């Protein structure tokens, strides 16, 4: 079995398990929701079929047992309850664990027999038949009457599932003829007909998997579909060369084009069972069609409809003019229907690395041309092209927040149930996109905040009622994008954070002295939750109490060049706000000079650039005033230890000027505002001030001169250099120089 097939199986199954979790949550919330039940059956059926086709019988058997139990629920024989859902979620978790082993080693050693037998016992005898405190199933084998692999089932076992999916209910032994006009179960509209598409997958390595993709694509693209042999048999690869699909369409050519466009289809032969009105071009099926034809393959009435394009599913749009108007001609426009392709993450990272190199080379080339006084008009065009390529690749790396947060409802549900709390969890902004790296790193901080919200924030129902609240607590996760940043808010309506309790705990743990905590405002006291090792929980549990977590949350967010803030009102709730950049690595930087050494400051952090002739002294510290606000001055020469390195005193003060939000870019990517600032009177000797955005850090950085602005690739510090206060990374300039990029939040310590 190839690694490519295993990766495809794991990728599809991961999505399926997430969908299964969320559909089960929807069913638990509303047991009468038919859409949730249908979604559960579809997903469990797909997981079962995929696993069986790949040869993972234990995985398939467990998914099949879930189907059997859910069928009893759908039939009204078993009611939805907390105990039932616990068992189903336990099975989903086991599937997830098995999938993890398959992803790591290509196989799984986990034995699901106990859980599988419990599910089957519940299906036969009801929920009360099991001890709800633990798994009571045995691990000594499987009953032949129930089986664990749907590939071992006979036609009767598949009849019910096939009926549910609209499959052909005729005999599978090939001895009794099946009349498609009577048994396909499809109901065409006034302008539609029923057509048979005989599908040939060619020399498929994994016919079951390929057939599954075909069925999903055809089912999405047509109003109705039935199968011969039945769907279970097809998805398990139990067909010899070809299988038949019956679909509702307006013409045979539509069927030919639609089915032929699926990348896994090698050839398709279309014939009319019940032609649509006015469709005289399609061949017809006279008399009965023996079910054995599906396994014998038959003759292809038309030519090859192979498509070499790679893709997922047909996008649902059909061009009636494509393909020949007959029993399966060549489909010349099949690739037009492919709307997306799957790209391996490693390939995307490689492409991203090449773009980074291109950006660096472009900067180097421009600098060399400027030094040689060569006309750069042609380079301007290259700038536009490379910038467009860079933007495209960055967009390709953007992934919807749903890829992470769709697993959170299950997390909140399990925590709340374990603590006997009632919690509604709402998510808004699932479609907001972030860079893949950021999305991967931010998952754990969000999980920790949610766990704290359930454990620390939401009160028990009785306590909430006594306080006049709804006994059911609410946790909201909201995401919103503004320009190049995404804000994620996690808010609960729980008990909030008592500042006095934090003060007492800080003194008790020796984090702060009594005098220090008494001098703190409530907002400053709440910031103590981010101190390493700090926890207000006296009891250590599986969820919290060890004092490990919130400091890691802030560190992780800061490493992503983001920020996290906390606001809380006792008795009303707590609100965490995380602000993150949409993308990483390639940033626009203002380069400054300090004692002859060049440093970079990200433009997005700079609110204003001005001459340093307005510096005052207050209480012994240098400050600068702006709109009645006072900003402490940090002299970079002092905090960076460069004083006297190149004579000190500045290398030119520059003329005053403001650069808000990074200035206005011209064609070569530089800032007109930045150039104006750096072109000042060298005799002033007072240096320059970079006032930092207040929400980032209300300070002003003093430097000798402002040099220029460039878009650069920032490489984070690694190893023993990582975490150095005041530095966020390095950038290689066009002349090969390596310049340190400053972290304005940790530079010189917080004042």
TrEMBL record:
Residues 132-149, 156-166, 290-309, 331-340 have a biased composition (Low complexity). It comes from Halobaculum gomorrense. Keywords: ATP-binding, Chemotaxis, Cytoplasm, Kinase, Nucleotide-binding, Phosphoprotein, Transferase, Two-component regulatory system. It catalyses: ATP + protein L-histidine = ADP + protein N-phospho-L-histidine. Its main location: cytoplasm. Residues 127-190, 274-340 are annotated as: Disordered. It is found in: Cytoplasm. One of its GO terms (biological process) is chemotaxis. InterPro entries: Bact_Chemotaxis_CheA, CheA-like_dim, CheA-like_homodim_sf, CheA_P2-bd, CheW-like_dom_sf, CheW-lke_dom, CheY-binding_CheA, HATPase_C_sf. Residues 377-584 form the Histidine kinase domain. CDD domains: HATPase_CheA-like (cd16916), HPT (cd00088). One of its GO terms (molecular function) is phosphorelay sensor kinase activity. Its EC number is 2.7.13.3. Residues 1-102 form the HPt domain. GO terms for cellular component: cytoplasm. The modification Phosphohistidine is found at residue 45. This is Chemotaxis protein CheA.
């Amino acid at each position: 079995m190839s690694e490519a097939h295993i990766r495809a199986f794991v990728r599809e199954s991961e999505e399926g398990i997430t969908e299964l979790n969320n559909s089960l949550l929807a069913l638990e919330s509303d047991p009468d929701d038919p859409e949730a039940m249908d979604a559960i059956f579809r997903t469990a059926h797909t997981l079962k079929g995929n696993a069986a086709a790949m040869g993972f019988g234990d995985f398939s058997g467990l998914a099949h047992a879930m189907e059997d139990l859910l069928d009893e629920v759908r039939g009204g024989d078993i009611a939805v309850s907390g105990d039932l859902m616990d068992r189903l979620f336990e099975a989903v978790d086991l599937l997830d664990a098995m999938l993890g082993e398959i992803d790591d080693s290509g196989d799984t050693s986990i034995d699901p027999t106990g859980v599988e037998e419990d599910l089957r016992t519940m299906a036969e005898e009801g929920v009360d038949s099991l001890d709800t405190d633990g798994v009571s199933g045995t691990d000594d084998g499987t009953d032949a009457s129930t089986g664990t692999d749907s590939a071992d089932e006979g036609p009767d076992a598949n009849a019910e599932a096939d009926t549910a999916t609209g499959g052909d209910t005729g005999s599978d032994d090939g001895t009794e003829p099946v009349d498609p006009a009577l048994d396909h179960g499809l109901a065409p509209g006034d302008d539609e007909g029923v057509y048979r598409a005989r599908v040939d997958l060619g020399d498929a390595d994994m016919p079951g998997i390929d057939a599954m993709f075909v069925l999903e694509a055809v089912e999405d693209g047509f109003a109705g579909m039935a199968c011969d042999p039945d769907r279970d048999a097809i998805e398990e690869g139990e067909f010899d060369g070809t299988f038949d699909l019956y679909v509702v369409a307006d013409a045979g050519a539509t069927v030919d084009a639609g089915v032929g466009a699926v990348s896994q289809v090698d050839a398709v032969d279309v014939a009319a069972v019940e032609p649509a009105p006015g469709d005289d071009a399609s061949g017809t099926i006279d008399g009965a069609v023996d079910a054995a034809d599906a396994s014998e393959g038959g003759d292809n009435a038309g030519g090859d409809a192979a498509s070499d394009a790679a893709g997922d599913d047909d996008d649902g749009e059909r061009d009636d003019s494509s393909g020949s108007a007959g029993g399966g001609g060549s489909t010349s426009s099949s690739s037009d229907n492919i709307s997306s392709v799957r790209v391996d993450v490693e390939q995307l990272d490689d492409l991203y690395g090449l773009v980074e190199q291109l950006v660096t080379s472009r900067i180097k080339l421009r600098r060399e041309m400027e030094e040689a006084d060569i006309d750069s008009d042609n380079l301007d065009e290259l700038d536009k092209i490379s910038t467009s390529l860079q933007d495209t690749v960055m967009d390709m790396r953007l992934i919807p927040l749903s890829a992470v947060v769709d697993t959170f409802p299950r997390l909140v549900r399990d925590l709340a149930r374990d603590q006997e709390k009632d919690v509604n969890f709402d998510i808004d902004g699932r479609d907001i996109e972030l860079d893949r790296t950021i999305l991967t790193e931010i998952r754990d901080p969000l999980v920790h905040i949610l766990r704290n919200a359930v454990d620390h924030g939401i009160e028990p129902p009785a306590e909430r009622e006594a306080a006049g609240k709804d006994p059911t607590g609410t946790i909201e996760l909201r995401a919103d994008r503004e320009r190049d940043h995404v804000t994620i808010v996690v808010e609960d309506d729980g008990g909030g954070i008592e500042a006095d309790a934090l003060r007492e705990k800080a003194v008790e743990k020796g984090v702060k002295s009594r005098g220090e905590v008494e001098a703190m405002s409530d907002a400053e006291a709440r910031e103590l939750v981010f101190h390493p090792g700090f926890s207000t929980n006296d009891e250590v549990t599986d969820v919290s109490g060890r004092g490990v977590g919130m400091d890691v949350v802030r560190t992780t967010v800061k490493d992503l060049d983001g920020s996290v803030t906390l606001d809380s009102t006792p008795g009303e709730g707590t609100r965490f706000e995380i602000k993150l950049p949409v993308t990483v690595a390639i940033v626009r930087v203002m380069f400054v000079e300090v004692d002859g050494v060049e440093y970079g400051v990200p433009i997005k952090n700079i609110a204003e650039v001005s001459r340093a002739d307005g510096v005052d002294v207050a209480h012994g510290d240098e400050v600068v005033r702006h709109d009645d606000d006072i900003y402490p001055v940090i002299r970079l020469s002092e905090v960076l230890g460069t004083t006297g390195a190149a004579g000190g005193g500045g290398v030119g003060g520059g003329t005053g000027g403001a650069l808000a939000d990074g200035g206005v870019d011209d064609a070569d990517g530089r800032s007109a505002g930045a150039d104006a600032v750096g072109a000042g009177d060298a005799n002033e000797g007072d240096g320059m001030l970079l006032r930092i955005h207040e929400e980032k850090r209300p300070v002003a950085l003093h430097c000798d001169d402002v040099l220029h602005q460039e878009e650069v690739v920032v490489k984070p510090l690694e190893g023993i250099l990582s975490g150095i206060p005041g530095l966020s990374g390095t950038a290689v300039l066009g002349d090969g120089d390596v310049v340190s990029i400053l972290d304005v939040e940790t530079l010189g310590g917080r004042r």
